[in-house]
Structure formats: C-alpha cells, structure tokens
C-alpha cells in the first residue's frame, strides 16, 4: 500500500523535535550536529532568536493579504536586497524552482519586447540543478530528473560543465540567456572558476545575451560573500535566490537589473503567497545579519578554519576521502568510499551531512557554526570515516 506521504524521498529514520543553533535534538534525546542545515536553508542555524522574534511578531499582527495590496515587509526586503546587490528590482517567490520559472520567463519576455522573439534559448550546464518544476527539470535536463515526464519545456541547450569551446559553438541567433550556478550544489559542490565567470560575463556582453545566475544554494553568505558571484567581480542580469534567504521560512526571489526586468509589466507574472508578510519579515531579519561585512568576515575566518581541518582529515583517511572542494561554508568532501556510507556512519555519531552527485559529501552548516562546533564536527567526521574504514 502506498504510504500516506507520497514516497518520493528515501528518508533516514530520524525524528527531530527541536533545533538550537547548529544542533538538532532527536525524539530520543540525542543531539545531532547539523552540517546540512536543511540543505543550506537554515543559514543562521535553528531557532535563531532574531528570526524567531521577526516571525512571531509578524504572526501576531498579519499573515497574508495577497499582492493586491502593498506589503511594507516586502518593500523593506526588496530595498535591502537591491541596496546590497547589483539588482534594481526583486520579485518574491516561495521556493527556488519558482524563482527559476520567473527567471526563464523574464529572459524570454525581455527579448520578445526588444523585437527578438526568436531568442528563447537558454544555455545550461551538465550537473546543474534548478529545482523540480517543469522548467527547472527541463533546464537541468539530467535523465534522472526528466525521464518519464513527457514533453519538456523546449528551448534549453545543455552543455558540458566546463567546456568553453562547446559554449562558443552553441551560441546562435536564438540564444537569449546563459543560466549557471556559480557553485554547483546538487552537482557535487563544483565552483565555477572566477576567470570563467568573468569570461561568461564578457561573452554575454559581447553577444548580447542575458546572464542568469542560480544562487539558490550558494547565495546569502554561503560562500563568504553575500552572493557568490562577488568573488569573481562580475554581476549577472538576473539572479535566483531562495534557501538561505528565508533562514528556514519558505522564501525565494528573483533579482534583476532594470533593463533585464523591462518586459515584466503589470499582469505578466504573479504569485498568491510570494512576498507574504511572514516570509519577508524573516527575510529582513536574515539580511540584517548576513549582509553585515563583519558577519561575512567572520564566516570567512571560520570557513578557513574548517577547511584547514578538513584537509588534514582527508589526508588521514585516504580510503574514505580524496579531497576537499567548494568555497566558504559550502564545502564538499569528494569520497573514495560510497558517500552514502559516510552519511550513514555520521548518523551513528550524531552528525548530519548531505550527499551530492559525483560521490561528494556536502557540508552546508549554519553560517553561525562556532570554532568549538567546527572542532567537534571534524572529530565526528573523523569517527564516521574510521567506522567506514573498518567496514571496508
Ligand atoms: C535547491 C535548489 C533549487 C530549487 O529550490 P527549491 O526551493 O527546492 O525549489 C534551485 N537551484 C538550486 C541551485 C538549488 O540548490
């Protein structure tokens, strides 16, 4: 008989009842150190007092009015995001994949209104992930995601991940945009080199193509900059954000320049819940903390400490790990042993990590992880790796 929850996930038999910072407490009392943070969502850890206050204060007053009316919390968050980024304008969604939907529509409408309705093609890359909506799976295009789901949204051109020549050859009269994650998350924590992002920007400028960045996983302080593309010193035309921006409350956004957004006039897009007062109140509280340069400097310091300890860990477990990759607190341990074995061994030592493609173990801890928690995390990873070695 089918379970009462549609069985699309293989879940670990863990029941968490409470969260505190980087810790999740199981029903039976065990305390798990959470290096997954709800897949890079709980950017400030669990039950951060500023977020709890923002949410509960808002909940006392007003939950929802719809976008038929002005929403001050939405305005405040849009102002914070535009002030802190390249963007001139923001549309709020409830998830990353909804942000992907709008990014695609926005790029196509831009060219349509410019008198180039043929420029509907969007170039995407192998190993990418843009969510599970019809546009999201069509954009990523991997067999695992699209097989069995019938005719896909047309207009995506899938290229190998790191092949500048294939990219040049793929650009035609119908190319409207390039869509890329500055650091692939699901694909196995694969950062795009700064030099390549710069090249993409120049190529887009030269050929008149929109650059869309998917920063759903790598944005909001995760790499040690507010947005990952800042490391390369470039700006996109359109950017998708979600996960960390809500700190655990469902919230996403599309950020864009005035030019790229010029086709999106009244009536061209909408969302019932997008930009609701609850989500935006929490988003404002997240931005107030994460956009602070001192906070980001400390994320970078702690990320450096974690990385150093992980390099030593990898060196002492060559049968389990072969390398560390990623940026900031978006790190991947490339495994030699099956990555799921390490995830499972982690559960036995009360440590939560997340698998990714390419046999990578993802570490996406709360950005607030302390020095002591970093030491504890590496001790537990060491114990998990030893258990995996013993079972080999
Ligand atoms: C998680 C993710 C998405 C999809 O976000 P949802 O909120 O699950 O719809 C899109 N792009 C990237 C890079 C992601 O990591």
TrEMBL record:
Class of enzymatic activity (EC top level): transferase
Residues given in the record as pyridoxal 5'-phosphate binding sites: 96-97, 129, 214-217, 272
Pathway annotation: Amino-acid biosynthesis; L-arginine biosynthesis; N(2)-acetyl-L-ornithine from L-glutamate: step 4/4
Self-association state and partner proteins as the record states: Homodimer.
The keyword Repeat belongs to this UniProt entry's keyword annotation: no
Protein name per its UniProtKB record: Acetylornithine aminotransferase
Entry EC no(s): 2.6.1.11
Species whose genome carries this gene: Litorivita pollutaquae
Molecular function terms, GO-annotated: identical protein binding; N2-acetyl-L-ornithine:2-oxoglutarate 5-aminotransferase activity; pyridoxal phosphate binding
Entries under NCBIfam families matching the protein: argD, PRK01278.1
Extra information: May also have succinyldiaminopimelate aminotransferase activity, thus carrying out the corresponding step in lysine biosynthesis.
GO-annotated biological processes: L-arginine biosynthetic process
